[in-house]
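Help! Submission page says 'invalid entity' but I think these are all valid:
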Amino acid sequence: MVNQRKIKVLVCKPGLDGHDRGAKVLARALRDAGMEVIYTGLHQTPDDIVQTVIQEDPDAIMLSMLSGAHNALCPVIMEKLKENGIDDVLVGIGGIIPDEDKTFLEKHGLKGFYGPGTELKTIVEFVKNNLKR
Amino acid sequence: MSYSNLIDKLLKGDTRAAARLITVVENDIIAAEDIINSIYKYTGKAYILGITGSPGSGKSTFISTLTKIFVEQDKKIGIICVDPTSPLTGGAILGDRIRMKEHFTLNNVFIRSMANRGQLGGLARATEDIIKILDVYGCDIIIVETVGVGQSEVDIFKSAQTVVVLLVPGLGDDIQAIKAGIMEITDIFIVNKMDLAGADRKVSEIMQMLELDMNYKYDSNNVMNDYAKIKRWSPPILKVNSKTGENFEDFIKLIEKHRIFLEETGIISDYQKNRIRNETIQILKHKLTKKVEALLSSNSQIEEYIKLVMDKSLDPYSMANLIVKLLGME
């Protein structure tokens, strides 16, 4: 119990998207995998997210997006993280992300792309195996 | 690894450095020792406000409304929210930020969520260290939200200058109010959700309990050292509505009144002494536990003692005494 290193994950709902069942299920699954999960609720702006990341210092950010605004919001989030010198945090995304948008988002540094039907353990393993620190 | 770079930045009020150092003290108690050692001399400026209450009593919403007022007064606010760790998996869901959304992007509000990692008492092991980091970071007021507590998670009064307990109408009858624990450590009682039926009844229940308490509380010979800070202070009871902000101005006045009371009576120095004493005991417990665990797993003598206890030629108390001897600290 001396070094209680725990994986800390921020689960986020960016933008005007009111459906967070998936985010909550994911938060629960990550918790059950022994991680400390912060959930910030709906309607997060990129600034909200980046400030939360600065203050909470998580190891990973998991964005849940069902609204279709991913191409607009994700690059802004990634840019603002960079502006604040945050380059050692894993950023994963899930929800409804059409295949044709993946390359664009990957270029901006996003990973994961887990849609409906993904097994929870797949996402848990993804977080564990892709941490940058 | 040296943390001097981060500490230099912290002293200049750098937010990321504060956040990073908090992560370090949470995860690594040995590094925490170094960090606190370097920054301790800069601590002591912040006023620490403890907010506690049962799950669902509205702590996070209450803090959010309170923060809004402090921000208007140009104060820099640190908020530490403690949530429970699952005893089964070691994981945790930290959800207190949800109620504090409107402050996320304010420069002078720093919110940090933490899991209690199995520590009883309503706080986490590292909470005291994090308070110190936020103090050095430059917060004027540090608000500590405990886990949703039952009746005996009272550690907060060892850390905070003013302890606020949130109660809500309709939970528990008057017998709950005379039980020991939480109710004894309170500096200010808040009946939250005052718009609900039963708020006045709640107030009168607390009032009755306080009247019963009066006699021994006012007899200073009878007051234990730990409770020094509540002697001669009769905890006020205030109804508020955290959603509308109703009566919050009165609450701010009560905090100020309590602060002045602590200073004018000199109780503040008792408080500081107790805080140092309690914190040191915690640290010692931690260190001694480690030492004992190391001894128990490495010393061959122990197995022999256990056999003796099994044969009934030794009892567990006597065995413990022998181990104390082995530790060389009788």
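Support: the input was valid. A stray whitespace character was the problem, and the output above is from the cleaned input. The first helix of chain B runs from residue 4 to 11.
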